[in-house]
Amino acid sequence: MTTQSQKNQQDIIKLQGETKLIHQKIDTITNNHLYHLDLEIKNIKKIAWVILTISLSSLLSLVGNLLS
């Protein structure tokens, strides 16, 4: 029969394992997933600038044709 002290020790070991797992998952998120999300955001920003540039040049061309 296990004593309360042994049960507590087993629970502490279990919690330590869970803490290590959580730490590993946080490390994976910060070192891997955030990097890839940053790359995707940079690509979206580039596309947005291209669309903005094309829109502005089309608008300027339209205004230029209307004034001529």
Descriptive keywords:
1 helix, single chain, 68 residues, mainly alpha, rod-shaped
Strand content of the residues, in percent?
under 5%
**Alpha-beta content class:** mainly alpha
Report the helical percentage: over 70%
Largest sheet: none
Give the uncertain stretches in residue-range form.
none
Task: Write a brief structural summary.
The protein is an all-alpha fold and 68 residues long.
Overview of the molecule:
There is one protein chain. With 68 residues, this protein is mainly alpha-helical. The protein is 94% helix and 0% strand. It has one helix at residues 4-67. The mean pLDDT is 93.
Write the layout of secondary structure elements.
Elements lengths: L3 H64 L1
